[in-house]
Amino acid sequence: ISLGSGAAGATLLLNTSEIANGKLGIALALPADGVFAAGSQEVVRVDLRLGVVVNPTLATISFGDIPIVRELSDAPGNPLAANYSGASVGIAAAQFEGDLSPRPNGDRSLSISDWVLAGRFAARLDYPTNATEFQRADCAPRTALGDGLITITDWVQAGRYAAKLDPATVVGGPSEEAPAPAGAPQRQGAEPDGPIRQLIVADAMVLQGQAGSTKVRLEAMGDENALGFSLAFDPTVLNYTSASLGAGVGGAVFYINTNQSSLGRLGIALSLPTGGHFAPGTQEIVTVNFRAAAGATGDYPVALTQAPVPREVSDANAVALTTSYINGTVVVNPPPSLKIGRAGQNIVLSWPLWSTNFVLEQSGGGLPPLGTWTNLPVTVGVSNNESTVTLPLDDAVRYFRLHLP
Questions:
Q1: Are strands 197-201 and 323-326 parallel, antiparallel or unpaired?
Q2: Which residue blocks in 50-170 are alpha helix, DSSP H?
Q3: Are 397 and 365 in contact (CB under 8 A)?
Q4: Which listed site, 1, 14, 135, 180, has its alpha carbon 20 to 30 Å from 105?
Q5: Do strands 204-207 and 328-333 pair parallel, antiparallel, or not at all (unpaired)?
Q6: How far apart are CA 169 and CA 128, in angstroms?
Q7: How many Å apart are CA 102 and CA 349, to the nearest integer?
Q8: CA angle centred on 324, ends 280 and 265, rounded to 5°
Q9: What would the pLDDT profile of 337-363 be if each residue is shown by its tens digit?
Q10: Which residues are 403's β-sheet partners?
């Protein structure tokens, strides 16, 4: 409480003995023989902290006689006739961090639908369309009411609100997106002592014109709950076909953003249940399937990038975890050729050393359907940068092939 502009120099007395009952006593007097100027005068300014309400409310402020009797006096001490008029204060309904559904205004209730929509925002499948929706979506770090970025930690924090692990918090913080640093995680935790977790794109091999896949692995430390990232690849060589959860993320909620896959950009966001975490060690997160172009040959990078989904790893408390991101390579090769030659009383089968995922099969008595292809149980050697198998020469008719299981 403070003196108003029309009561400069007055003495102010304040009685708060009944404040718990919503009553405040105020007395003020100008210096001896002083009088207020004619007209409307602001004599007291009272600052109030408004309560949190979920529906618009009118609060009445009126004059009373407890703890100080209302009265107006002139300079000699004679009571003056006066009218005492109360007023109403309109209190707008509060909006809460993480309250997103239904769009765009929410419903002032924090539930699982808010968590689902926060995940779609983090995966860039949907995105805030106005400033207040952005404020409610950008809810992590909780202590700062957001930081101008919508990433995986916001999804985790929305889940904590929905699960009532954190109390509902009145909206605040940035109302628009902050510039994100290029080529680095948007949010970073403090550097720990010793090793940090790694998100890795595994190297893979694909045949020309054939389907293949690469896997994304997490070298987990045991405190990870959710993660998001994007993959960048050459769309003229690798045509994205599908993606699926890996064996290390059973029960996870999984979002995949394919809106820019034709441009060579794929976004992925996934989260374990609220409060859950990955087991320490190597965890297979996602398998991404491609089809290689028929005429492609060579090594092609698959990089972990920031668009469309910013890369980030979060713990169960919506804190970003320091992570190292390691890119991979997809090698596109032509179909391997199987060569056969004679060496004395033996035959030698050879094929390119890189084709390690092919198996050597044989068929006796003729080609199918006259014969049946079966695996050839032999030891494979290496000679002149080729895989080789040596078999004794005999009179049997046999056919050989390389087969990709």
A1: parallel
A2: 112-122, 131-137, 152-162
A3: yes
A4: 180
A5: parallel
A6: 19
A7: 66
A8: 110
A9: 999 999 999 999 999 988 888 899 999
A10: 359
Among 65, 50, 1, 4, residue whose Cα is nearest residue 30: 4
Q: Give strand pairing partners of 26.
A: 14
The percent helix, strand, coil of the chain (3-state, each to 5) is 10, 35, 55
- Predicted pLDDT at 367: 83
Higher pLDDT, 327 or 196: 327
Q: What is the DSSP letter of 294?
A: T
- Contact criterion met (CB below 8 Å) for 210 and 331: no
Position 299, amino acid? D
Cα radius of gyration rounded to whole Å, the chain: 36
Over residues 374-396, the pLDDT tens digits come to 999 888 999 988 999 999 998 88
- Give 347's strand partners: 342, 391
Which of the residue ranges 45-49, 234-238, 292-296 would you say has the lowest mean pLDDT?
45-49
Judged by phi (left if over 0) then psi (alpha if -120 to 50, else beta), residue 298 lies in: left
Query: For residue 336, what are its two tokens?
Result: 């391997």
CB 325 within 8 A of CB 305: no
Query: Which residue is listed with tokens 């968590």?
Result: 115
Task: Over range 325-345, report the average pLDDT.
Answer: 93
The Cα–Cα gap between 118 and 170 comes to: 17
* Mean pLDDT in residue range 251-275: 95
- Non-local CB neighbours of 194 within 8 Å, separated by 6+ positions: none
Whose structure tokens read 């179909």? 335
How would you label 153-178 residue by residue, b for 16+ Cβ within 10 Å and e otherwise?
A: bbbbbbbbbbeeebebbebebbbeee
Q: Secondary structure of 64-100 in the HEC alphabet? A: CCCCCCCCEECCCCCEECCCCCCEEEEECCCCECCCC
